[in-house]
Amino acid sequence: MEKSRGNAGVCSSKTVTLPRLNRLNPSLESTALKIMEESGELAQAIGKFRGLNGERLRVEETEAMHMVAQELIDVAQTAVTMMFVLEEQYAIDIEKILKEHVEKLKQKGYCD
């Protein structure tokens, strides 16, 4: 993962490169459902750390944050898979959408 060094007031960014999964035939619907599943697993990992899962035994912070990071990457991989679906099956220009997204963030004052 690359991390840019931002100046004060400038959005810093991270670059994560995730592969196109070539042993699947994901649809828009199956990928959306998978994002929800993975998001639920991310919430469970956070719940284990915070003691919100109803279990008496809480997970130590280092282990919990490792679990959170793993689940977050699963969410990101599934989101990237959906981007491939949108590009390949619906001819959506993800690069254009990404630029629009960054511009929206700038207009809202979240970054320069």
Automatic annotation (TrEMBL):
Domain NTP pyrophosphohydrolase MazG-like: start-end pairs: 28-107
InterPro entries per record: AF0060_NTP-PPase_MazG-like, MazG-like_dom
Domain of life from the UniProt record: Bacteria
Pfam families: MazG
Xref: Gene3D superfamilies: MazG-like
The protein's name: Putative pyrophosphatase
Species of origin: Desulfitobacterium dehalogenans (strain ATCC 51507 / DSM 9161 / JW/IU-DC1)
